[in-house]
Amino acid sequence: MPKTIVIAGGGRNVGKTRLAEALAAILGDAAAIKIGVHAAQGAKPPLFFPPGTSLAEVTAAAGDRTWLVVESGAILDEPDAEIALVIFLPAPGGDKPGSDRRRASAHMVRGRPLDRDEREAIRGRLGVDEVVLTAIVEAVEASGATP
Fold first, then answer.
1. How confident is the model over 28-34, as a mean pLDDT?
2. Which residues of 42-67 are buried (b: 16+ CB within 10 A; e: fewer)?
């Protein structure tokens, strides 16, 4: 079973696709996945699924991967979904209504530093070393910058 990272955001155009692509590159054997109504606009489009697609369906379609990087907060509503890391990207002008629940469940929020215990907990769930975790944290923070 692949380890799943979920990227949720406070709105559109907050850097979710860019971050999914960056994390897939950092992790190597990863599938970048987008679930939604708007197709990805990045240089390398992720696997795209319509709303309502389950994590089980995404996992089956992604093949034998070590990592799934899923751009969709809706996956968090699945009661049995095993998520290793939840990342929330706030919207610069304020988050859309209902985003506070996603933000509250996030292990990482862009703009909020992680303390030592949080870093260790994330490393443990992901099974990565400090170098990889640092690259992930840097990618999260860079995801809001314009290219």
1. 92
2. beeebbebeeebebeebbeebeebeb
